[in-house]
Amino acid sequence: MSQIINIYDSLEFICPCCGEYSEIDYFDASVTIEDMDMGRPSDERVSEYTCEHCGESFEITPHMDIGVKHITTLEKEK
Questions:
Q1: Lower CB count within 10 Å: N or C terminus of the chain?
Q2: Does residue 40 lie within any of the structural domains?
């Protein structure tokens, strides 16, 4: 049930070294279905990036847990 997806939209991260925003345009993220998929470790896609402001390197761990829950008829009526 787990998979690696590509995120094509740019995201801004705050550099842990200088506190400036760094924009990352493309990266892979590890996605798992909550409580159903334990096969893919959350740190599988750790990537290293270099800050465009200070030149220091930092790591990001792009991991998404998606929760899936059955909704009973009584819960739908609320």
A1: C
A2: yes
Q: Tell me the CA distances in angstroms from 56 to 15, 48, 52, 53, one per residue in order.
A: 9, 10, 8, 8
Residue 53 lies in a domain: yes
> Of 4 and 53, which is predicted with more confidence?
53
Q: For residue 76, name the pLDDT band (cuts at 50, 70, 90).
A: low
Q: Are strands 27-33 and 63-66 parallel, antiparallel or unpaired?
A: parallel
Q: Are 31 and 5 in contact (CB under 8 A)?
A: yes
